[in-house]
Amino acid sequence: MEKKMMKKQLIIFTLVAFAVPYLLGIVMGIGYQKGIDLTVFPSAQMYYPAAGVMLAALLTRKNDDYIPRRFFIGYIINTLIMVIMAVVSVFIPAVSWLWPSQIVMMGGTIILLILMLTEKKEKREAYGLKGKNWKGLVFVSVLFLVLYLIRAAASYFISGQTDALLAIVSNSQTWILLLSVVVSYFLAFIPFFGEEYGWRYYLQPIMQKRFGAVKGVILLGVLWGIWHLPINFFYYASPAHGIMSVLAQIITCITLGIFFAYGYMKTNNIWLPVILHYMNNNLVPVITGDVSADVLQNQQVGWQDLLFLLVVNGILFLSFALAGHFRKKEYQLPTMNERADRICQEASFCDGSLGASSES
């Protein structure tokens, strides 16, 4: 019964997390051909993995009173609004949908934060939402920031743009922008939670149990990279450079995925990979000195870029696959069902799996 439930959950998760963005990729293609601004799509797509996890839990664990239903349902509603805005942005292009979508994202973040914090502690613990090991979180976050800046500096040195790097560092606006990135986290973390709750909280333990601690994370990185395909073809790059963009994405997702997995296993705190993901994306304007909304669009990725990613990211992030956290069983994290059932059983609320009882 447990395997049957997990299979249903995986199907639901896959349909929401993967099928939805690929179907909407057709809409993106239509918009791209018409020269329409597609900025809403990448933001909306970040919501899908967590929405898939939550929908799977709600549909297969119906008798589980430890599900944080208010938060889950609120998140799914927020996701639907973002999907609608993304689709409408293609068919009603006369209206600028960037700022409305940003308002929905920021407003949704505040509302969802309130909904989550007002859920009982046991519910947050049962579904991986409760923060813990904050000292470890700070340590890994600072470590990632250092490695991220080393990678950025290496990029400038290799490309012979040392003067540009010095100009960015000496510009006071750079430091103001960095401060704004820190403050903005509390208004914009939900999309990053959307990915990490799907990839790290839900899928990582399943992949590691099936394929091994390191190999599971590498395969997850491949899936995570391919998941970006519609955005790679119609936003990050053009269809002409789409394949190269996808390859770069896969390398990035494998290498960063190893480090994110290391941090998550070290702390058992989903908010750590959320913070790391937020830093990775939002520090781009800081290190490039480009604060325009389209800083990530229309990139041209060449073989040299792939080689740089492979070597530098490999040295800085892939090396964490050698950490003891990937070898010692005490660091292996439970799946969603295992975590929820453990909390349930500790409270003497149920016998066996609630998910299984809901299917009987």
Describe the structure.
With 360 residues, the protein is mostly helical. The protein has one domain (2-359). The chain contains 18 helices and no strands. It has helices spanning 2-33, 40-45, 48-60, 69-91, 98-117, 121-126, 134-158, 162-170, 172-188, 190-211, 213-227, 229-236, 242-267, 271-282, 284-288, 303-316, 336-346, 354-359. The chain is globular and about 60 Å long. The termini are close together. Residues 355-360 have low confidence and may be disordered.
Helix and strand content put the structural class at mainly alpha
- Give the domain tally: 1
This entry's quaternary arrangement is single chain
Element-level helix/strand string = HHHHHHHHHHHHHHHHHH
Query: Residue share in helices?
Result: over 70%
Rounded mean pLDDT score: 92
Intertermini distance: 9 Å
Q: Give the CA-based shape.
A: globular
Continuous helix count: 18
DSSP E strands, number: 0
Unreliably modeled segments: 355-360
Overall radius of gyration: 20 Å
Largest sheet at a glance? Answer: none
DSSP strand content: under 5%
